[in-house]
């Protein structure tokens, strides 16, 4: 890491490249890099942030995930100082920076698109922040060059933004944000203007670079696959507050609310009956995610069941009938109609597809993985 | 477009050497011609109002009254009173272009900070559209009626406040007056031509500068001004050309003397005292064409740079 010449007096450096997936940093009171505390922000009639709390550990990458308009961008902009909160505090490295203007917060920011200065070359764009910090020209050039190499675009240093593709522009924007060795890296849907293939490629590379430099990072996206792929922890947002915050597998496998189960991945909504800590669905008693039925009590509910928790078997006596199948590569999704007109989507190995022509009678079995329920 | 000869409705192809019969060729030409009919008015306009006058001016500038080629007209452009007129024309255009550009740019900036589809912005842009064209007799009359020798503002200031606008001479009908009146249509023109460049400035650039540690001043100094400079200079040139070639306003305002080139040309073309000066007028017009051509070439160059950045 030749570009980190400046001595870093932040705890972020102590975690550094070690903050990978295997050593997920968990926030403890004295190792919190970023603390958003009770943020509220109202725009006219819209409560964009509604008592948002979030703690980020040093070196951690948190993905804020949620539908459009749920307040992700507002949260990120309040952290960056580009937007003021109506109430609540922002702390970085234990210091309260709520009143600090954006240009003194030391945050690297990557926008959705078109954020490079169009009159400057890629190299000059990356040098820009260093120039503002009065870094000497030779040193500036060297560090900017190293950053461009890091994001894999060193050979395009002399190109202007309009001579670069969208993906290349985002790489330069990332290099520009990292060149100032920010305390926090903020990315607001940095991939959503790119086409699918570039998106996946750049997504993985952003993660690689983030692990390499070890900067605490907030990554805003509405794409659940993206969030699950890059993050140490995923924060699912809804209407200005955090609905669930946890490692990707936890958010996916043990969604704490129906909203999360619905928004992250695909879920069947199947009628069931709650009794105790179980819910009976299609003749199978499934365990409930702890706390999932609180406030609902017992009785008729809808259980949210993942397609991959549904097993299909061809059975002439089965009560289900195959409606349709869609091929997704190694696996496929098959929709099955039950006698009571409930529709169940199952994920099956694509090798089984030939046996599952529409109209085929099938038997359905649910795997006993914990599910969440919502009032019917 | 597919080739007409292969279309089923084309005339039957005869078996001789030419696979496309004359009738089909004619039809092809006719169709192609029809596609071009849309632009005919445009070209006709260019020919009638630009090409022909320029040719007439250029040919006339090099001809004597009896039609022989001569350089006399061009060398007469060096006469003191014509040089003076050019100097005053250029001064008038430059001063009103710079003042108009600065004030117009400030007004345009105020507009972009307002809501883009808000009532204020729509109102001011439409007003500018009208005012930028509000030259000629009407504008001159408006000034005469307000701050002319017996305009109501002049009289009010004199009678009520004891201020005499004309204590230093009848400036309204000379160069200072022209500058004031021209500025009146230069500012709205600047608003119209500069607004698109300001709209091209993305808010991300300011926010990126801020997050990289830049102050507002650094943003203007290092980002906004370099980006807007070509558009600003280009617009100033356009304003220069606009003032330089304006005639009607000056003609309506100035009835004695000919301080600027367009009025000199008028007197050369209409003089009853000295006959046969038409070709001198054409030589002056050619001089104006050259000045405007240089200015517009610079304008086009700057415009190209701007559109690459702010498109
Ligand atoms: N500057 C603003 N003025 C008015 N409303 C805004 C502004 N910024 C955001 N909002 C509103 O706040 C809500 C949250 O916006 P945002 O944070 O951009 O959501 P997200 O990034 O999750 O899509 C939306 O309803 C949006 O319309
Ligand atoms: Mg957003």
UniProtKB/TrEMBL annotation, chain A:
<dbReference type="InterPro" id="IPR027417">
    <property type="entry name" value="P-loop_NTPase"/>
</dbReference>
<dbReference type="InterPro" id="IPR003593">
    <property type="entry name" value="AAA+_ATPase"/>
</dbReference>
<feature type="region of interest" description="Disordered">
    <location>
        <begin position="1"/>
        <end position="31"/>
    </location>
</feature>
<dbReference type="GO" id="GO:0015418">
    <property type="term" value="F:ABC-type quaternary ammonium compound transporting activity"/>
</dbReference>
<dbReference type="InterPro" id="IPR003439">
    <property type="entry name" value="ABC_transporter-like_ATP-bd"/>
</dbReference>
<dbReference type="GO" id="GO:0043190">
    <property type="term" value="C:ATP-binding cassette (ABC) transporter complex"/>
</dbReference>
<keyword id="KW-0547">Nucleotide-binding</keyword>
<dbReference type="InterPro" id="IPR008995">
    <property type="entry name" value="Mo/tungstate-bd_C_term_dom"/>
</dbReference>
<feature type="domain" description="ABC transporter">
    <location>
        <begin position="34"/>
        <end position="264"/>
    </location>
</feature>
<dbReference type="InterPro" id="IPR017871">
    <property type="entry name" value="ABC_transporter-like_CS"/>
</dbReference>
<dbReference type="GO" id="GO:0005524">
    <property type="term" value="F:ATP binding"/>
</dbReference>
<keyword id="KW-0067">ATP-binding</keyword>
<dbReference type="Pfam" id="PF00005">
    <property type="entry name" value="ABC_tran"/>
</dbReference>
<dbReference type="GO" id="GO:0016887">
    <property type="term" value="F:ATP hydrolysis activity"/>
</dbReference>
<keyword id="KW-0813">Transport</keyword>
<dbReference type="Pfam" id="PF08402">
    <property type="entry name" value="TOBE_2"/>
</dbReference>
<protein>
    <recommendedName>
        <fullName>ABC-type quaternary amine transporter</fullName>
        <ecNumber>7.6.2.9</ecNumber>
    </recommendedName>
</protein>
<dbReference type="InterPro" id="IPR050093">
    <property type="entry name" value="ABC_SmlMolc_Importer"/>
</dbReference>
<feature type="compositionally biased region" description="Basic and acidic residues">
    <location>
        <begin position="1"/>
        <end position="12"/>
    </location>
</feature>
<dbReference type="InterPro" id="IPR013611">
    <property type="entry name" value="Transp-assoc_OB_typ2"/>
</dbReference>
TrEMBL record, chain B:
<keyword id="KW-1133">Transmembrane helix</keyword>
<feature type="transmembrane region" description="Helical">
    <location>
        <begin position="36"/>
        <end position="62"/>
    </location>
</feature>
<comment type="similarity">
    <text>Belongs to the binding-protein-dependent transport system permease family. CysTW subfamily.</text>
</comment>
<dbReference type="GO" id="GO:0005886">
    <property type="term" value="C:plasma membrane"/>
</dbReference>
<dbReference type="GO" id="GO:0055085">
    <property type="term" value="P:transmembrane transport"/>
</dbReference>
<dbReference type="InterPro" id="IPR035906">
    <property type="entry name" value="MetI-like_sf"/>
</dbReference>
<keyword id="KW-0812">Transmembrane</keyword>
<keyword id="KW-1003">Cell membrane</keyword>
<feature type="region of interest" description="Disordered">
    <location>
        <begin position="1"/>
        <end position="20"/>
    </location>
</feature>
<keyword id="KW-0472">Membrane</keyword>
<feature type="transmembrane region" description="Helical">
    <location>
        <begin position="177"/>
        <end position="198"/>
    </location>
</feature>
<feature type="transmembrane region" description="Helical">
    <location>
        <begin position="283"/>
        <end position="302"/>
    </location>
</feature>
<feature type="transmembrane region" description="Helical">
    <location>
        <begin position="124"/>
        <end position="157"/>
    </location>
</feature>
<feature type="domain" description="ABC transmembrane type-1">
    <location>
        <begin position="86"/>
        <end position="301"/>
    </location>
</feature>
<dbReference type="InterPro" id="IPR000515">
    <property type="entry name" value="MetI-like"/>
</dbReference>
<feature type="transmembrane region" description="Helical">
    <location>
        <begin position="90"/>
        <end position="112"/>
    </location>
</feature>
<protein>
    <submittedName>
        <fullName>ABC transporter permease</fullName>
    </submittedName>
</protein>
<keyword id="KW-0813">Transport</keyword>
<dbReference type="Pfam" id="PF00528">
    <property type="entry name" value="BPD_transp_1"/>
</dbReference>
<feature type="transmembrane region" description="Helical">
    <location>
        <begin position="227"/>
        <end position="254"/>
    </location>
</feature>
